[in-house]
What we know:
Helix content is 6%, strand content 57%.
Amino acid sequence: MLCVLVTACNQKTAYYHYEHTPMTGWDKNDTLTFVMGPVSASGRYMEEVGLRISGEYPFMGLNLIIEQRNKSKQLLRVDTLACSLFNEQGHVQGRGVSQFQYTFPLSAMDLEEDELLYVKIRHDMKRDILPGISDVGLRVVRSR
């Protein structure tokens, strides 16, 4: 148990930001953009996506397309993140009462000092406009 606490204390948040989406509906063509950097230290960084939804969200899950570009290396990485929001019985898996908070691990990457990271997030659902999603966020933590 102590090892977990020590590890958690050594992690440093390099970036933590949420973008607001209209509660009436997040359009499939509305891409959310996050710009992180420049990072202050080289190292391994862990990413996670955060979501805030209301009871108006009509599906059990959410598929996100996440494009990442590292400015100095001109790398492009595209991930599909399948977010499970409710369990099989239809109970919310997030935290909250009228708004529910979720976090989903995304990836780990090595970044050099002064590098920039551009991240774009959009949904990939059959319905073009998704009601009930209020915010989408990105958190990047230096793990070593």
